[in-house]
Amino acid sequence: MKVDYIIKDAWVYQTFRQCFEKREVAVSGERILAVSPKFAGACDRIIDGSGMYLIPGLIDIHMHIESSMTYPKEFSRLALQHGTTTVVADAHEIANVFGMEGICSFMDQETEMDIFYAIPSSVPATSWELETPGAAIGEEETRQLLEDDRVLCLGEVMNFRDLVPEEPDGLISKPDAALAHKADTKTLRLIRMCRSRRGRDIRIEGHCPKITGMDLNRFIFAGVDADHTQQTPESVLEKSDLGMFLELQRKSLTPEVVEAVCSHRLYENVALITDDTMPDQLLEGQLNRILLAAVQAGMPVEKAIYCATYTPARRMHLDDRGMIGPGKLADFLLLQDLDTFRPAAVVKSGRLVSGSWWMAGSAGKAAEQADPKEEEPSAVSTVCSSRFAADTIFPPHFYHSVHCRGAVASDFILTAGKACTSVLANVIRIGTFGTATELVRRRIPVRNGVICWQEAGLCLAVIFERHGRNGNIAAGLVEGAFQKPGAAATTWSHDSHNLLVLGNSPEDMVIAQNRVIALQGGYVVAAEGAVAAEALLQVGGIINDGPLEKLAKDLGRVRGAMAALGYENNNEIMSMSTLALPVSPALKLTDYGLLDVKTQKKVALIAEECLDV
Q1: For strand 422-430 and strand 437-447, is the pairing parallel, antiparallel, or unpaired?
Q2: Alpha carbon of 111 to those of 79, 285, 348, 541: distances in Å?
Q3: Distance CA 25, CA 2 (A)
Q4: Residues 21, 27, 32, 35: what is their CA dihedral angle, to the nearest 10 degrees?
Q5: Residue 84: pLDDT above 60?
Q6: Three-state DSSP class for 463?
Q7: Backbone angles phi, psi at 197, to 5 degrees
Q8: Phi and psi dihedrals of 603, rounded to 5?
Q9: What is the DSSP string of 130-185?
Q10: Which of 139, 312, 337, 410 has the fewest CB atoms within 10 Å, i.e. the most exposed one?
Q11: Buried b (16+ CB within 10 A) or exposed e, 73-93
């Protein structure tokens, strides 16, 4: 068999012993031919790997390309540079806007990176009675997607109440009755459809933050056996003991959580994932940043590599990658050190795709990049095919998807239901870290029937349904957002992506909301009667079809403008955008109003019984 090149004297990662040893790696075509202390075959191209560490390509099995506000081909270009060679993408953001057409618009794109897909399980995230998306994914769409070999799993199951009955006694004492109680829910039908798929083991991914005890048992009993949400040491042990696979994103990688993983040697049950990588963050790194964070939090470097390569591959049955071995895909990185995880070279399917370091042995000359191989007809079955001109990235109507009226000042005036001097309001309180919120009650003065929310030091969040379905407008009060007068508006609001405006200055709220409509999607910050920063997301209101470098700069200005107005959070943009995410604890806002995430019941903005007469 022809050997294209041999890498000599590199420190090669030994997956099953989680250590490094000097080896020679021979590559033939897109696969690894041999790994040996001394390769016996002949080859004209010898690459000197002295002093370098050779590890498998990184595999991110839970992520959303739309969180980078870009499209698959552009994401592939950037993420490959950071060493991620395979992802499993859950395209539920574009699906919430355009449904099956949105998913196909992603799957149609050719990329150097291997992109596999999850079936969006929760589009909408809750139900049409609680929020308004632009489209839905149901049984027929799921059936179609299961025909595509690139589909590996059912994406994060988020609708807790669709699986867990409200009667706590039904969980253990009457499991059959509990199942019957929920037998006809959409989510359970999708799970059964995936689990009964003959010849394929379709994984069922979950989203279960702060779910514990009997509720967690019931969630797993329904078929969901993975979770990617924020963990604590206690949840790591409880979920692992119950057989749940853990996917640790950045906010879970605290020293305490990592200690729980390490002290109990749970590496076989853990994968490192990104979930969401903002555009400005993607310029700096992708899964390699999570790997570094795990090491900095106390995970041994060899174990962290294992959890970013082999365990994710095994979880998704990607048996042809995740380790350096004969017959495996030649997806690997060359690192100059194990301190930064910035690749000196990235090889995908045997070809150099990124990196300036690629030297040829004793001659000291740069080795030529492996010749492109002629594309063979794909053996992958697909349900998607190109539906628009080859010289465009998306269909024309994807660029005209914001269908709501412009705001006026009266949209941001709250009135009391009856004569009173104050009201007790249910308020969303945000924190300085992460996206979780909590419900707090605040006494707010009322004058001439108008609720003086600004005087109480609060911000107002208003959602405008923008898919042209019902014209809903709903409001909620927010504590812990802007401290100075100003506002921000966006169509990038998880998951239904209606138009969300947040602020404490009605004048600036009108400016920001109207500007987002004019852009046909994006992020806008307004202050002192003018636009302070903006980022264009003209595709479905969630994606920019230009170079990520420019988008990242614009988004950096948006982030800076929000911080300048006193918005304090480790990720201002994500914190605001998830105020509309009704499956993330604890109190959120949809176009139908405030929603208690756990019970999936509506919450009144004003507690009427607490009005002062």
Answers
A1: antiparallel
A2: 11, 18, 11, 23
A3: 14
A4: -30
A5: yes
A6: strand
A7: -65, 115
A8: -120, 130
A9: T---S----HHHHHHHTTSTTEEEEEEE--HHHHS-S-GGGTTT-HHHHHHHTTT-
A10: 410
A11: bbbbbbbbbbbbbbbbbbbbb
Q: Peptide bond before 591: cis, by omega within 30 degrees of 0?
A: no
Task: Give the separation between CA 592 and CA 463, rounded to whole angstroms.
Answer: 9
Long-range contacts of 480-483 (CB under 8 A, 24+ apart): 480/429, 480/430, 480/431, 480/432, 480/568, 481/430, 481/567, 481/576, 482/562, 482/565, 482/566, 482/567, 483/565, 483/566, 483/567, 483/568
Q: What are 427's two structure tokens?
A: 């308020």
pLDDT, tens only, 112-153: 999 999 999 989 988 999 999 999 999 999 999 999 999 999
| Both tokens assigned to 168 | 């706590």
Q: How confident is the model at residue 602 (pLDDT cuts 50, 70, 90)?
A: very high
C-alpha to C-alpha distance for 310 and 59, rounded to whole angstroms: 8
Residue 355's pLDDT band, with cuts at 50, 70 and 90, is confident
Taking CA atoms, 131 is separated from 127, 471, 595, 602, in Å, by 6, 12, 10, 11
Identify the band that residue 418 occupies on the pLDDT scale cut at 50, 70 and 90: confident
Residue 456, classed as helix, strand or coil, is coil
Residue among 516, 388, 539 nearest 463 (CA) = 516
Query: For residue 328, which of 503, 114, 570 has the smallest C-alpha distance?
Result: 114
pLDDT at 75 > cutoff 70: yes
Contacts of 234 (CB under 8 A, 6+ apart): none
Is 361 strand, coil or helix? helix
Question: Binning pLDDT at 50, 70 and 90, where does residue 361 land?
Answer: very low
DSSP state of 419: S
Of the candidates 285, 324, 284, 277, the one whose C-alpha atom is nearest the C-alpha of residue 305 is: 324
pLDDT in tens, 243-274: 999 999 999 999 999 999 999 999 999 999 99
Residue 104's CB: how many other CB atoms inside 10 A?
Answer: 22
Residue 158: its pLDDT value, please? 85
Residue with tokens 């595509």: 148
Q: Are strands 345-348 and 351-354 parallel, antiparallel or unpaired?
A: antiparallel
Question: Per-residue pLDDT averaged across 323-347, rounded?
Answer: 97
Question: For 534-584, what is each residue's pLDDT tens digit?
Answer: 999 999 999 999 999 999 999 999 999 999 999 999 999 999 999 999 988
pLDDT value, residue 383: 63
**Residue closest to 252 by CA, chosen among 281, 268, 217, 276:** 276
